[in-house]
Amino acid sequence: MKTEWxxxxxxxxxxxxxxxxxxxxxxxxxxxxxxxxRLRPHIKTHKMPMFARMQIAAGASxxxxxxxxxxxxxxxxxxxDIFLAYPQVGEVKIKRALALARKVKRLILAVDSMExxxxxxxxxxxxxxxxxxxxxxxxxxxxxxVIREKAVWLAKELAKLSNLNLTxxxxxxxxxxxxxxxxxxxxxxxxxxxxxxxxxxxxxxxxIELRDISAGSTPTGIEVxxxxxxxxxxxxxxxxxxxxxxxxxxxVFDEIAVRYYATVVSVPCKEYAVIDGGTxxxxxxxxxxTEPYHYPGYALVEGNEDLQLRRMNEEHGILTSKKGDTGxxxxxxVVLVPIHVCTAINMQNTVYVDYGDYLExxxxxxxxxxx
Length: 371
Hints:
Layout: E1 13-17, H1 18-34, E2 38-39, H2 49-58, E3 63-65, H3 68-76, E4 81-87, H4 91-103, E5 106-111, H5 114-127, E6 131-136, H6 151-159, E7 164-170, E8 176-177, E9 180-181, H7 185-205, E10 212-215, H8 221-226, E11 232-233, H9 243-247, E12 258-269, E13 272-275, E14 299-301, E15 307-312, E16 317-321, E17 333-338, H10 341-346, E18 350-354, E19 359-363
Helix pairs in contact: 3-4, 4-5
């Protein structure tokens, strides 16, 4: 970012380097297509229709959302092929999902149990709709998803429902191998593809046709695509990348498209300085000094490894010096790199986008969409 723009920034804030974001979009699209796979990126990272439209323009087949509120925002922004990769439980959410299904070209819903599927089927029947669904399979992450031993049974039961059209299966596995965390994205991705092929084969052997096999996060996505055993991958973080991806071997530092900017507001003593962003600005969804990656702070101070952000209150970030003297003064601007960019963006109502020759504010329209 141009130095002369620094004083324009209302800190604390996030600035997105548009050129790097474009490069990341194109790189993932080309690599996915190289392996004969489709790309359906997750919008959880950027949460902005503008970036989703860029991904579609680059060749993505559609987008992925987690919550119905996110999907509604994306539909309002012109996106019309949406996979809602999260079980819709409860009358209100099902009603919203069916209403959205009438508005877009394609809406795919997720199920992982009959308790989820039956109310959806009944509501779809009452609405006169046949809803496309994918069945989630747990391949080791141990969160949502039917366990593999029950996958064929559930697929058979879903196939009996009159107003649900089971067209595929999907999973989220990320860096897991043999049901345990791993740092090796190659073996994790290879196993992910193999497990999904096996599950799909068992379901097809039971007489149920499947069109789509969807898998792959940013760390494992390309490795899954390389197996040739899935039809689609759904990475999200790749668009901006972050320090976590660097540690996971899925990015290099120069590819990170996002920076925080903060202002030093107080320097009570040489040992620490206070910046104008705290827990409302910097996410705390990582553990410091913990295996395997030993993150040194809640964000990295760019260009100064001596400084660390290890303590925060709501509006105060405390920068300390390993040498005992921060060297900072009131009014200084500090540039920081996010550890986990998805949660970082979600904490911002607006972000700055650096287009190279001008700076523009953009609303994070799907920010805080929890339902």
